[in-house]
Design a protein that fits this description.
This protein is mainly alpha-helical. The protein has a domain of about 25 residues. Helices cover about 70% and strands about 5% of the residues. The chain contains 3 helices and 2 strands.
């Protein structure tokens, strides 16, 4: 009986270690999320500026008196596994 309990406790400890590591990873991402969004915004704005320069000449950032904004970035799963995972959870 105590041997079985010890094995179950070891399994629980392993799961808690995994949970702790995952929590730390999520905390790290969330701590840097503002920087990540800022980098994405800068890259998107730069890409929009480059495209406008190629299309229209000098990049003033204005179009018909209004400031142009970069297009919205959207993440699209690129592999079948992530599509299957998405379908399972929705």
């Amino acid at each position: 009986m105590s041997h079985t309990l010890a094995i179950q406790m070891q399994g629980l400890e392993d799961k808690l270690v995994t949970l702790r590591d995952g929590t730390e990873a999520i905390a790290c991402v969330l701590a840097n999320w503002d920087s990540v969004l800022q980098a994405i915004s800068m890259a998107s704005a730069k890409a929009a500026g480059i495209q406008k320069t190629l299309d229209e000449g000098p990049n003033t950032g204005l179009q018909d008196g209004m400031l142009t904004m970069p297009s919205t970035l959207v993440r699209i799963p690129a592999d079948i596994k992530s599509k299957l995972r998405h379908n399972v959870y929705t």
